[in-house]
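[Solved] Which block belongs to which protein?

Original post:
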Amino acid sequence: MTAKQGAPGLDAPRLSDLMPWSTAPLRLGRSWVMGPDPATLRARWKVLADTAEPADRERLFRPSRARTLHSAVGQLPGRDTPTARLARAVGPCPEPVRVLHGPFDRQWLLPDHRLIDAARPELWRVADEHQLFLVELGQVPGTSGPAVVCSALLPDGRSPAGRPGRIRPLHRRLGGTEPNLAPGLAALLARRLGRTVPPDGLLAWIAATAVHSPDGTAVPLTADPALWDRGVALGTRLLWLSTWGAYQGGGPDGPGGRPRLPGGRRPYVRAALPARGLPDALGYDPDDEALSLGAGRIAPVPSGAWDFHAGGVRVLAEWFAQRAGAGAAGGEPAEPGSLAALRPAAWPQEWTSELLELVTVLALRAELEPELAQLAGAVADGPLIGAAELRAAGVLPVPAAATRPASVLDHREEGPDGQFALL
């Protein structure tokens, strides 16, 4: 549901009521630890590791109040990385991991806790193949775009042009157990709707109906079983698209495989990108439905994909700027001689493949807008389960414990300088 598709009723529950545990977005502190390709991250790490002079290493590192070369921090959960202070030894390069940067940009991150100001370890602790993350996107007045996106990758929570929202995991523990839902909510909905409401079904409903409101993201809840089924089906397709096909829920009628446009509408490279250098401009020809990257050309690219906005920006333009622009992830200037200035000298083939996949996802996502708008109108005109009913049923207010991470009492993680802690 986009920001321009109407507002929910005043009694619509907030997303924070339905999925009470959340974290703030990641705060990197230094943009060079993230990038569009893993080879560049390894090259940056090598430069840092090979720099012996302390003052030069500190300049490259870009210390902050949260992280310096002398900071003592433990490993990120699930990552096997050194914990010695960087002033003494950098160690081998950690294997870059795929993350979601902003709403639709899959990038790579060096998962070393010594490098990241606020990595949100509680998110890493519950990240596995069963997990889905819901990311709230900042509202930018006068622009369209979804209020939330879902990710199978750990997201950084960035909202490019808006105020960052929160990151809400679907599950509070590994293995897809203990859903991050208000206690009693699923049972109440099951009674009112006459059908089982699994955690990913409710997540699908949220993906299809969440909307910006003055006091946070709101989620209207229908009491009409047919409308519920319709919204869950739409939301299931949204989850499939926003995870690039990683989410395969919805049963036998749900989407499957990787997102693909029908034959004849699939984008192809019509003119290859230059073998040297990076394209300096991105353009779009609506008549030919062609995307131009310097001398390179990709078509057909439906106008819905080109016009798709999220987080206050045009998604394709932002994706291109992250790769060919002068800056780095997070907007930090790529000063000459800095690690952020280390970038590919030519356009990697992998980026072209990723761009074709992104065009496909955005084109299919844009095709759902009319159905989402119709659903929003039908939900607003039909019977609703409001916040007052949730309070009367004891679902709200949410217990304080549900707003905090689940306790982990039998898990050891390496702390600073190789010491272990029992969590």
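(Second protein starts here: sequence line, then its structure tokens.)
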Amino acid sequence: MPHTSSTHRVAVVVPCYRVTRHIAGVIAAIGPEVDRIYCVDDACPDHSGDMIEDSNRDPRVMVLRHEQNQGVGGAVLTGYAQAITDGATVIVKIDGDGQMDPALLPGFIAPILRGEADYTKGNRFWDLRQIRQMPLVRRIGNLGLSFLSKISTGYWDIFDPTNGYTAIHAHIAARLPAASISRRYFFETDMLFRLNTMRAVVMDIPMDARYADESSSLNVRRVLGEFLGKHVRNLFKRIVYNYFLRDLPIASMELLAGLGLGTFGLVFGGWHWWQSAQRMGSTPVGTIMIATVAVVSALQLLLAFLNYDINNIPRRPLHPHLGPLLSSSRSDPGQRSTN
């Protein structure tokens, strides 16, 4: 069986849930650069795993099963764990619904093998001519989610955070806090947050948007509040991890001073404005200046922090420096977790 090289083994993880119409074509299109294909039957009501085992003739395919549905994230993490155990170097995740072209696999793998990135992901917004193929609702939703993701994950230079076409070095996958990662629709974005706390390098890979007869079970209205809450949570965690636990740069002081001055200026100014309104009088100029200077200074400090954060994107790939994986890391990457 052809390999990417004598020392590198590539694995593909395919979550399988209601993909019986497309999965055979997806498997057939995966090229010889891949050594192993893990199809994860995520308690599929259509029995995708049985269908694959009955019809598949590709010796690279292994079917993994969940007794209960765990969502796309749970399926991917199960595939990661098996691929690490089997000695994979790079693990690619593609969907089984035919949206993702397996011919693009080498482009996702190459930057990792060259030591340029720890994790690569697709970006359907790279070619503006191709964006018209994306349904308008998805286009607007992805724009909003991309902005929120930049803030919460700290990867200001990437786009299309919900894109599920990804590749990761096994050394990085083995050290993910798998037990803490969101299992369902927030999985891809939560992965980016976890990667940033590890200081892993993430790279966008241009790809076209492909839509056929597949259907999406994502209800935007239902998950909007959930996504917003999780973005806020991850932003808070990232700032604490990166700016107060792992390091204490000048930006940490700028953030604290900015928040303190801003809070003081708004409370002080608001209180005196309310008192003046109650007695139908004017607010003293000195009081107005104190509140104004505090708020303006706070904005300057917060902008300085934001500038530092944007320039603090991980630049040095992590996986070349991790060394060989421990046997315990290979067997179950999900045992390590963080809150």
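Accepted answer:
You had them paired correctly. Confirming on the second one: The chain has two domains: 10-238, 248-310.
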